[in-house]
């Protein structure tokens, strides 16, 4: 059984303007797929889309109309075969602060809305489009969805209640969604990154020293992961036709301490 051939297909990558999403978009394009970069960062997203021969769609993943626009743009480029949900954010905050005041519920809800509900919003709409395509093989395969969670889903640190809950939700819905979509020949997997070298850490000598320090807590190799390495796992989930309903930690073996 050969790998899934993405030549002539279209794909969607949320959060594709930078970091892990950008790395995934570039590897999808190298595999022959026309990529829709669905992101809020218009300048960077348009630049990446231009460089890889794709299309940029400004997208708030929590809005159904934005998700529909991204799907519509993809289907114009070719049959939609892959959706990578990489958009996400974190807003640290302890359940109660040092003055014993509870965390603002709106802050907690916002992280859940973007990371969990936003992921479901885009994947469900992408799945609806995938289900209407012609099957690619004798198995009836029509596409693959990959969601990005985090090792915080398992090893949430102090102040990460909202982030861990959102990513734990992504992990928890992987199997039932894969079961839901099996009748349509659509596979669903989740990749859970550890400490990844993204622009969030800043630039310059101080940032590099901080990242090197963080890297020492990784089992091996003792460094932060690269976006390309996460994208390798995402591409495996998309192109390996037997990879389904799985959650893969990509974290160099790290197990996060309380803080």
TrEMBL record:
| Secretion signal span | none
Q: Which family does it belong to?
A: Belongs to the short-chain dehydrogenases/reductases (SDR) family.
Q: Which UniProt keywords apply?
A: Oxidoreductase
What would you give as a GO molecular function for this chain, any one? oxidoreductase activity
Q: Which SUPFAM superfamilies match?
A: NAD(P)-binding Rossmann-fold domains (SSF51735)
**Matching PROSITE patterns:** ADH_SHORT
Organism ancestry? Bacteria, Pseudomonadati, Pseudomonadota, Gammaproteobacteria, Cellvibrionales
Give the matching InterPro entries: NAD(P)-bd_dom_sf, Sc_DH/Rdtase_CS, SDR_fam
**Originating species:** Halioglobus maricola
Q: What is this protein called?
A: SDR family NAD(P)-dependent oxidoreductase
